[in-house]
């Protein structure tokens, strides 16, 4: 009987060890894409390897996220980072840091744990007539606290999504401006070409019409003389 208990405990310990020694697939995939030099223009480590930076969010969401996580939602990617304790450490760019997510230290990924919103505790067995009013008050307080925590998390998520949308909107405006400038430049070139055609062809930088006019004037002077 004692041997069976020991075997059972050993099995539980082994399962727990394997669980802790296995890094999350999300972390492994994120680490791989950050490490890949082929994607450095889109996502890479910062200068000292203590954080990673998403340089081009639109390209990252469009080209890389679907191959890694089967979706193209940058906001969802940020929410996943938050659940694993990552922090946005810059206000001017999408730079994220975690103390155990470091360049060249892939083994530490196993120590990063997913956060839980709250810990479920087993309910206490109380007599139906004992401290009923106190239980109601505690239940109301717990519910209010949970609602408040949920509101804070939702507010944080909305702020981050708003940052993403603002960045993407600014990028779209810049591309639209570049497109309009390109169209204007093309129209200007077309007008110049049209003017050149109206004025006639050129020979050695001189309009043929001007050359012909000059020849005609010379002929008239010769005839007069």
Overall description:
This protein is of the alpha+beta class. Helix content is 62%, strand content 7%. It has helices at 2-21, 25-35, 57-69, 74-83, 132-199, 208-224, and strands at residues 43-45, 52-54, 87-88, 94-97, 202-203, 206-207. The strands form 2 sheets. It has a 4-stranded antiparallel β-sheet, covered by helices on one side. Helix 4 runs antiparallel to helix 5 (132-199). The radius of gyration is 35 Å and the shape is elongated. 9% of the residues are buried.
Task: Provide a brief overview of the structure.
This protein has helices at residues 2-21, 25-35, 57-69, 74-83, 132-199, 208-224; strands at residues 43-45, 52-54, 87-88, 94-97, 202-203, 206-207.
Poorly predicted parts: 1-6, 14-20, 118-131
- Please report the total strand number as a whole number: 6
Amino-to-carboxy terminus distance:
138 Å
Strand order of the largest sheet: 1-2-4-3
Mean residue pLDDT: 75
Largest sheet report: 4 strands, antiparallel
Shape: elongated
Helix content: 55-70%
Describe the secondary structure blueprint for this structure.
Blueprint: H1 2-21, H2 25-35, E1 43-45, E2 52-54, H3 57-69, H4 74-83, E3 87-88, E4 94-97, H5 132-199, E5 202-203, E6 206-207, H6 208-224
Antiparallel strand pairs: 1-2, 2-4, 3-4, 5-6
Helix pairs in contact: 4-5
